[in-house]
Amino acid sequence: MAESDTISNAVKLIGELAIVPGTSQFLDGNITSGAVHAALGLASGALLGIPGIILIAANSYSQSVSQKGLYDHVKDMIPDIRWSAAETPTAPRRATKE
After folding, report:
1. What residue spans define the domains of the chain?
2. How many Å apart are CA 80 and CA 66, to the nearest integer?
3. Does the pLDDT at position 67 exceed 60?
4. Considering only CA atoms, which of 52, 55, 34 is closest in space to residue 43?
5. In this structure, what are the phi and psi dihedrals at residue 79, rounded to the nearest 5 degrees?
6. So what's the pLDDT on residue 89?
7. Global pTM?
8. Which of 18, 23, 51, 69 has its CA 20 to 30 A from that of 9?
9. Across 67-92, average pLDDT
């Protein structure tokens, strides 16, 4: 089972880089997501060149393999500082009179 997953992921990755971004989505049966990634890949390739195509292909592959896009992976890596600030307030406390 693990070997077939590895082969499937390799085929998806090769398809993303060699054919068109969104290939892994098409192979998973996600036609709409695949079409969006293909369109975005072509547009970003026209605007940003190879780095744009690689970025869209990486996002498509990431969504296919882990069901999370690149934005979600980056968001999970960066700690949410709003919660830590609320837990450890830095404002000085005032003494209260009894």
Report:
1. 2-67
2. 22
3. yes
4. 52
5. -70, 145
6. 58
7. 0.75
8. 51
9. 74
Contact 56, 21 (CB under 8 A): yes
Collapsed DSSP state (helix, strand, coil) of residue 69 = coil
Helix axes 31-48, 50-66, angle to 10 degrees: 160
Give the pLDDT score at 2: 76
* CA atoms of 38 and 27, how far apart (whole Å): 13
Question: Could you tell me the CA-to-CA distances from 22 to 42, 47, 52, 93, 95 in Å, in that order?
Answer: 10, 18, 13, 55, 61
Locate all alpha helices (DSSP H) within the chain, ordered by sequence. Answer: 2-18, 23-28, 31-48, 50-66, 70-77, 81-87
Contact, 52 vs 44, CB < 8 A? yes
Whether the pLDDT of residue 93 is over 90: the answer is no
**14-64 pLDDT, tens per residue?**
999 999 999 999 999 999 999 999 999 999 999 999 999 999 999 999 999
Largest CA distance in the chain: 75
